[in-house]
Here is the input.
Amino acid sequence: MGKLCKGGCMIGPSILNSDLSRLAEECQRMLDAGADYLHLDVMDGHFVPNLTFGAPVVQSLRDKFPGVIFEVHMMVSNPEQWIDDMSKAGADVYTFHLEASENPTQTIEKIRSKGMLAGCGIKPKTAVEPLDDLAPSLDVLLVMTVEPGFGGQSFMSDMMSKVRYLRERHPDANIEVDGGLSPKTIETAAEAGANFIVSGSAVVKSSDPKSVISELRGVVNKYRKVNQAES
Here is the structure.
């Protein structure tokens, strides 16, 4: 697989926003535009009220894109249940929700035992401190900036206090934000310390996704340099 750039900027388009009838072509379009990884939203209709796709779709994409980083964002009620399937399907990063796991430390250990990197996310109403406690054992810390389950929501700028909290305590961590990220909101996220950017409609629906990804990356890199100079 490709390599996660620890502490560096990475842009991951959310393919759920693409034309799903042309999924492989849409993924290639995002990669040609400069995407660093592909963000695959897996929803079970229980943890969130929407239903998307599972391991068979991930496997079919893996067959076409053998060297690309796939992050599966598991918006599911029982994240432990799908670790084996997603590992076999070719997922690289398995990001589950803290709210859905009874024993997140055990979940992380199982993810790693299957050869995947571990990510953990929190919903907007969830306190950041439990995620902070897990941070040393995680590869990706995800702060949701919309309520998970549906695309097209407005960016929740008040979530940036969580990003700052995590960045202050973990200067080299990969802090991911997901929901409403666009050229209009990237400055707020980047200034707070986010370095992994999931962008859906702003990138995928753009007639020039390359320029959007370039703009997002430029802003994040600008603030990474500022924050590193201040630390």
Summary: The first helix runs from residue 23 to 32. The CA atoms of residues 84 and 113 lie 10 Å apart.
